[in-house]
Give the backbone structure.
Amino acid sequence: MSAPASIIVSTIEKLDAELKEALKSRDELKVSVIRMTKSSLKNKSIEKMATLTDDDILSVLSSLAKQRRESIEQFSLAGRTDLAEKEKKELEIIQTYLPKQLSSEELDEIILFAIKECNAVSPNDMGKVMKIVAPKTKGAADGKIVSQKVRELLTK
């Protein structure tokens, strides 16, 4: 299901407007993140050889956010707090373009509904549950957290 063109255009327009604003205010980090985001969206459009749908934009933004989370984790483990902080700031900027993140309670509710829907009873049914949960949480929750929660709720 593709989104109405107005949603897609508004995301692109928001990026353009915020890029101009960041350039004027000389916010180098925000300029860098927005340019990287726009570049990733353009690359996806070229790869797809078509105009991006809202799902495509969401997918690119989710991927960028995931990369930042993984980098934060790696830099923190390596003791590079300076680089981890930079990645955290980049993640905050990227998240402003993603849908509102689900709370823990909302996520549990979605997962429990999916478990009932596919009659899952053990961790072996995780794939069935994830097929239902993943589309509902795309962009609104970190995939790693979602899979941990599913596993946790299936083992109870």
User: Anything to note?
Assistant: Residues 54-77 form the longest helix (24 residues). The chain has two domains: 5-95, 104-155.
